[in-house]
Amino acid sequence: MLAARAQAIKRLKQLHPFVEEGVLLSKLMAYCSKEAHSCVEKSAMICFVKLRILEPDDKCSLRGPTLRRAMEEDEAMGLIPFFVSTTLGTTSCCSFDALAEIGPICRLFSNVWLHVDAAYAGNAFILPEMKHFLNGIEYADSFNTNPNKWLLVNFDCSTMWVRDRLKLTSALVVDPLYLQHGYSHSTIDYRHWGVPLSRRFRSLKLWFVIRSYGISGLQDYIRHHCQLAKHFEALVRKDNRFLVCNEVKLGLVCFRLKGTDKLNEKLLSNINASGKLHMVPANVNDRYTIRFCPTAQNATVEDVEYAWSVITEFATDLIELQMLEKEQENADEVFELADRKKKEALAYKRSFFVRMVSDPKIYNPKIAKSLSGGRRHTSHVTDDDDDIEAPESSAVAVNTPVFRHLDTLVRLPAKKEGSSSRRSSCSPSPDNSNSKSPSRSPVLGRRKPPSPN
């Protein structure tokens, strides 16, 4: 990315000689897939350039039309595409970007550097049957792979090929007097090929591995691991509790339990905590997946079957525990529902009792019917009230208190405003007499003894 940035700034300075480099730098835009390695994002941070992360297709592959649409949109906004990073064998699920589609699109834009990251899968390209994954590599400006990932070389060892080495070294040359020597024109000085000033002799250990195994030995080793991955994929597909989440092309199998992401997180956590296996998760199509990859040098089919037995054992225990927890949750929900209904019924009864004491119309519909005109309470009256006929002379003052004692209705007179109003406000006694007081006592509920006179 540093080399691509230097190349782009140099070209833009020729077109706009009076524009500051900082302004030109703010216009540069790099591109990669969401499935690209995090080092691409870190490189953009180091280089102070913009990075647009593009969405891949349902197979986690970056397609040409997606890239072209993004680059055209940015150009229309005044930005300058200068770098595209593609991946052959992504970290999360070993997917392959459509390099044959992306390469010609990069050629449509001037001076766009196309980089191909094949850190893991690039080791498998020593197999003739894997060469088809390299379709479109002729468009690449740089290509790298890591022999320490699949070629039996100890960490760390990374190899890089570059189309034009002068474009790379011109971006990184710093040549003070104390670093100059008389052989600078006859040898390759690798301090100009990267960020560090010096480096370890990594090529020596790669040479020893190639001399020890030979090309055919390394090819057999990689083929064997691909066969182990295929065997593990077959085991996963036989169990209907699991799903395979990627196309198994090389040695990586992404799988998950049918269920939530939290269920799969718990499964992986339990397996890794046991010490029997170690696997790493990934996010594939926005789902939490578990990555299984044979990495032991002498791994066998029996080892894969043992690993699968460990996985299924933990999965069975976890599913049973989940079922028990679900049953407990259902029981708790039933208990909570019954308890809530009980509390609601008790609250309703208490509320009804309070309203019954404060408003007699709730339990004596005859009173509600007898209150004609004036202001009436809005308490609930049953439908049976319509069948009860109120007495004709039941006119009662609006605020006259009404009480019920057993089967007798007694209405107290309103406040005295005059003799005529008092007579009109008093309701007739139950025995239809014209006496001023009722014949029954409102307290004892019995007739008064007759007067001796």
UniProtKB/TrEMBL annotation:
<dbReference type="InterPro" id="IPR010977">
    <property type="entry name" value="Aromatic_deC"/>
</dbReference>
<dbReference type="InterPro" id="IPR015422">
    <property type="entry name" value="PyrdxlP-dep_Trfase_small"/>
</dbReference>
<dbReference type="InterPro" id="IPR002129">
    <property type="entry name" value="PyrdxlP-dep_de-COase"/>
</dbReference>
<dbReference type="InterPro" id="IPR015424">
    <property type="entry name" value="PyrdxlP-dep_Trfase"/>
</dbReference>
<comment type="similarity">
    <text>Belongs to the group II decarboxylase family.</text>
</comment>
<feature type="modified residue" description="N6-(pyridoxal phosphate)lysine">
    <location>
        <position position="149"/>
    </location>
</feature>
<protein>
    <recommendedName>
        <fullName>Tyrosine decarboxylase</fullName>
    </recommendedName>
</protein>
<keyword id="KW-0210">Decarboxylase</keyword>
<dbReference type="GO" id="GO:0019752">
    <property type="term" value="P:carboxylic acid metabolic process"/>
</dbReference>
<dbReference type="GO" id="GO:0016831">
    <property type="term" value="F:carboxy-lyase activity"/>
</dbReference>
<dbReference type="GO" id="GO:0006520">
    <property type="term" value="P:amino acid metabolic process"/>
</dbReference>
<feature type="region of interest" description="Disordered">
    <location>
        <begin position="411"/>
        <end position="453"/>
    </location>
</feature>
<dbReference type="InterPro" id="IPR021115">
    <property type="entry name" value="Pyridoxal-P_BS"/>
</dbReference>
<feature type="compositionally biased region" description="Low complexity">
    <location>
        <begin position="421"/>
        <end position="442"/>
    </location>
</feature>
<dbReference type="Pfam" id="PF00282">
    <property type="entry name" value="Pyridoxal_deC"/>
</dbReference>
<dbReference type="InterPro" id="IPR015421">
    <property type="entry name" value="PyrdxlP-dep_Trfase_major"/>
</dbReference>
<keyword id="KW-0663">Pyridoxal phosphate</keyword>
<feature type="region of interest" description="Disordered">
    <location>
        <begin position="365"/>
        <end position="396"/>
    </location>
</feature>
<feature type="compositionally biased region" description="Basic and acidic residues">
    <location>
        <begin position="411"/>
        <end position="420"/>
    </location>
</feature>
<keyword id="KW-0456">Lyase</keyword>
<dbReference type="GO" id="GO:0030170">
    <property type="term" value="F:pyridoxal phosphate binding"/>
</dbReference>
<dbReference type="GO" id="GO:0005737">
    <property type="term" value="C:cytoplasm"/>
</dbReference>
